[in-house]
Amino acid sequence: MNNATAVGQGGPLALICGGGTLPLAVADSAAKRGRDLVLFPISGHADPAIVARYRHHWLRVGQFGAFTRLARAAGCHDVVWIGGLVRPSLWSLRPDFLAVKLLPKIIRAYRGGDNHLLTGVSKLFEEQGFRLVGAHEVAPEILIPEGALGRVDATGCAMGCVLLVRPCDRRHGRLPVSVPEP
């Protein structure tokens, strides 16, 4: 049983949707795999036309209590965050009661970079009993397949050149292309 199947055992999937078309690709893929979905598009970021095909509840950034209430009522346990979202300023949040109650933790999460913020917010979801799931776990076809992406595969002499450049670039902290370890 692969991850996409294993993840599909926990009731409807809650998809918190930011901007772009990736939320639709993930929703369509999960639906084709038989997963029941509830979309939670973020106002001002998600495209209304994209979410219209699915059961959904619009939310503003900061409506954590509304999300938990609606997701629990729908029977959701697994949550996927997908799509673009510009990091909101702390002052632009419109927190509901639960978010106000959790404000000290939210403020602590804001005191770092984007990874620190996402990690802090992830913990809040987990403390409420939700399980965060990677989009690739419910929609594996969104991943780029292994192998050459163009007409030419880096083999033989070309791969040798890449492998010679790799240690030098690693010392300088940069690699011009993504190359697998030998």
Q: Can you put this structure into words, describing what you see?
A:
The chain is α/β, with parallel strands linked by helices and 182 residues long. The chain has 2 domains: 139 residues, Rossmann fold; 37 residues, no CATH class. The protein is built from 9 helices and 4 strands. The protein has a 4-stranded parallel beta sheet, with helices on both faces. Strand 1, helix 2 and strand 2 form a beta-alpha-beta unit. 24% of the residues are buried. The N terminus is likely disordered.
List keywords for this structure.
2 domains, disordered N terminus, 182 residues, alpha/beta, 9 helices, globular
Major pleated sheet: 4 strands, parallel
Q: Low-confidence spans: pLDDT under 50, at least 5 residues? A: 1-8, 168-172
CATH architecture heading of the largest domain: 3-Layer(aba) Sandwich
**CATH fold call of the largest domain:** Rossmann fold
Rg over C-alpha atoms, rounded to the nearest angstrom: 20 Å
Alpha plus pi helix count: 9
N→C terminal distance: 30 Å
Principal-axis shape equals: globular
Which CATH class of the largest domain applies here? Alpha Beta
Order of helices and strands: HEHEHHEHHHEHH
Query: Could you say how many structural domains there are in total?
Result: 2
The helix/strand class is: alpha/beta
User: Looking across the biggest beta sheet, what order are the strands in?
Assistant: 2-1-3-4
Can you count the beta strands?
4
| Mean pLDDT across residues | 81
Binned strand content: 5-15%
Helix coverage percent of residues? Answer: 40-55%
